[in-house]
Amino acid sequence: MAAKSFDMIVIGAGPGGYVAAIRGAQLGLNVAIVEREHMGGICLNWGCIPTKALLRSSEVFHLMERAKDYGLKADNIGYDLDAVVKRSRGVANQLSGGIGHLMKKNKITTIMGEATIPAKGKVSVKTDKGTEELTAKNIIVATGARARELPGLEADGDLVWTYKHALTPKRMPKKLLVIGSGAIGIEFASFYNTLGCDTTVVEVMDRILPVEDAEISAFAKKQFVKQGMKIMEKTMVKQLERGKGKVTAHIEANGKVEKVEFDTVISAVGIVGNVEGLGLEELGVKIDRTHVIVDEYCRTGVEGVYAIGDIAGAPWLAHKASHEGVVVAELIAGQKDVHPVRPEAIAGCTYCHPQVASVGFTEEKAKEAGYKIKVGRFPFIGNGKAIALGESEGMVKTIFDEKTGELLGAHMVGAEVTELIQGYVVGRALETTEEDLMNTVFPHPTLSEMMHESVLDAYGRAIHF
Ligand SMILES: Cc1cc2nc3c(=O)[nH]c(=O)nc-3n(C[C@H](O)[C@H](O)[C@H](O)COP(=O)(O)OP(=O)(O)OC[C@H]3O[C@@H](n4cnc5c(N)ncnc54)[C@H](O)[C@@H]3O)c2cc1C
Question: Does the reported pTM lie above 0.90?
Answer without folding.
Answer: yes
